[in-house]
Design goal:
13 helices, DNA polymerase, domain 1, 3 domains, Ubiquitin-like (UB roll), single chain, 6-stranded mixed sheet, alpha/beta, binds magnesium ion, 363 residues, Rossmann fold, 3-stranded mixed sheet, binds guanosine-5'-diphosphate
Length: 363
C-alpha cells in the first residue's frame, strides 16, 4: 500500500510525514528549499500478531506496512505541490492520497494565499486533482478519433469503445463527479487503467490544526459537496505529533495524557487509511513467521495470495482459512480443524479482516 502525501506549500506535509514515520526529514519553513522525495515505511500496529506469536513462537513477527511518500515542491509559489509535472508518476502509482490541509496559525510560516482557510484549501486541492484528470481525458478525446481512423478494421470496435469510455469519464468529471464515484462497466474501467486517473484514488484529508486548538473539527466547515462524501477525515496537530513521535514511547504517552490528546497521529491516520481505502488485514502464521498483510476488503482469495508473492496467484490451489478469534481460542490449527472452524476455501472466497490463511500453492 503506497500513500502519497499532497497539499499546498507550507501546509505541513513534511511535518505530517515525520509524525507518521518518526523520521528526521527536514521540514523546510522558508521559501526556496528543494529537497528529495522522502519515503517512509510505517508498520501497522496489530495486537493480534502478539497473540499469534504466543501460539506459534515464530522466529519473526512482521506487521503489515504502509508506505508514505512525501513529495517535495520545487517552488513555494502557492501552487499545489506535485500534482502536475515531474511527480505525476508517483501520484499515479499511489493507491491513495493523504491530503494535508492547513488549519494552523503560525505567523512565522506565511500561507501562500495569506489567510488561513481550510475549506478553501481543500477545495483548491480537490479541483487540482480534477483538472489534472480532465486534461488527460481532453487530450485523449482529441487524439483517439485519429487513432480510430488509422486502426485496422478488426481493431476499430475496441478503439471506438475506448473513445466512448474516455468521453463518458470526461463528461462525469465535467459534472463534478470524481472517477471513484462514477458508474463504469468493467470494460470501460479497463480502458482507464492506461490513464490511472487521480480522482479514482481514495483521499484521506488531514486537517493540520493549531497546537492551541486540538479540538478543531471539520464539522465546522461547510463540506457538503457530494464529491467529498467519500473522503476520510482526520484532525491533528502535525507539529505537536511530530515532536511526540520523536520521544520515547512512555514519555510521549505521559505528555499525551497531560495534554488531553487521544490517539497518536500514526494510529489515527492508519485507521482512516484502512477505512477510506477499504482495507483489511489477513494473517499468515507458522514457526518461521507470523505476519499481517493488508489487502482490499473482500478481495478474492486467489488475488490476496498475490500480496505474498505474485506467483501465488498463478499457482493458487485453495486457501485454508480460520478466523483469528477461533484460532486464538483453539490454541492450534490442529484443534481448529477438529472443531471444524478451519475451512477450505476456493479462488473466489472474499478475504475478511482477521482471517488466518494458509495458501496451498502449486509452484
Ligand atoms: N505552528 C505550527 N506550525 C506547523 C505545523 N505544521 C507545520 N508547521 C510549520 O510549517 C512549516 C512548513 O511545514 P512543512 O512540513 O515543511 O510543510 P510542507 O511544505 O507542506 O512540507 C514548518 O516551519 C513547520 O514547522 C503545526 O501544526 N503548527
Ligand atoms: Mg515538504
Amino acid at each position: 500500500m503506497d500513500i502519497a502525501i499532497i497539499g499546498l506549500a507550507q501546509s505541513g506535509k513534511t511535518t505530517v510525514f515525520n509524525a507518521l514515520t518518526q523520521g528526521t526529514a527536514q521540514a523546510i519553513g522558508s521559501a526556496g528549499g528543494v529537497s528529495e522525495t522522502h519515503i517512509g515505511v510505517v508498520k501497522v500496529p496489530d495486537p493480534r500478531l502478539g497473540v499469534m506469536a504466543g501460539i506459534f513462537n515464530p522466529k519473526k513477527v512482521t506487521p503489515a506496512e504502509i508506505k508514505y511518500w512525501d513529495i517535495p515542491g520545487a517552488v513555494h509559489d502557492g501552487k499545489s505541490q506535485g500534482i502536475t509535472g515531474r511527480h505525476r508518476n508517483v501520484l499515479q502509482a499511489a493507491n491513495a492520497f493523504l491530503l494535508v490541509v492547513r488549519a494552523f496559525e503560525n505567523p512565522s510560516v506565511p500561507h501562500p494565499q495569506v489567510t488561513i482557510d481550510p475549506a478553501r484549501d481543500l477545495e483548491t486541492m480537490l479541483s487540482e486533482i480534477f483538472f489534472a484528470d480532465l486534461e488527460v481525458m481532453e487530450r485523449a478525446v482529441e487524439r483517439l478519433p485519429d487513432a480510430i481512423k488509422k486502426a485496422k478494421p478488426e481493431e476499430r470496435p475496441t478503439a471506438t469503445r475506448h473513445l466512448e469510455a474516455v468521453q463518458k469519464v470526461k463528461a462525469g468529471l465535467e459534472a463534478g463527479i470524481p472517477l471513484r464515484q462514477q458508474q463504469l462497466t468493467e470494460s470501460e474501467y479497463s480502458f482507464m487503467v492506461n490513464y490511472q486517473p487521480l480522482t479514482g484514488k481514495p483521499v484521506i484529508v488531514v486537517f493540520n490544526t493549531d497546537e492551541s486548538d486540538p479540538a478543531f473539527s471539520p464539522d465546522q466547515l461547510n463540506l457538503a459537496a457530494s464529491s467529498m462524501s467519500d473522503l476520510g477525515f482526520v484532525s491533528l496537530s502535525a507539529k505537536l505529533e511530530a515532536e511526540l513521535a520523536m520521544m520515547p514511547a512512555e514519555e510521549a504517552a505521559e505528555f499525551r495524557q497531560d495534554l488531553g490528546l487521544g490517539e497518536s497521529a500514526l494510529s489515527q491516520v492508519i485507521r482512516a487509511s484502512y477505512q477510506t481505502v477499504g482495507l483489511v488485514s489477513f494473517l499468515t502464521v507458522g514457526e518461521d513467521e507470523v505476519r499481517a498483510w493488508s489487502v482490499k476488503k473482500d478481495l478474492p482469495a486467489q488475488e490476496a495470495a498475490g500480496a505474498i508473492h505474485t506467483d501465488f496467484t498463478r499457482g493458487f490451489i485453495r486457501a485454508e482459512v480460520i478466523p483469528y478469534e477461533d484460532l486464538a481460542r483453539c490454541g492450534s490449527l490442529v484443534q481448529g480443524r477438529k472443531e471444524g472452524v478451519l475451512r477450505s476455501e476456493g479462488k473466489t472466497y472474499p478475504v475478511k479482516d482477521g482471517d488466518v490463511i494458509h495458501f496451498l500453492i502449486n509452484v
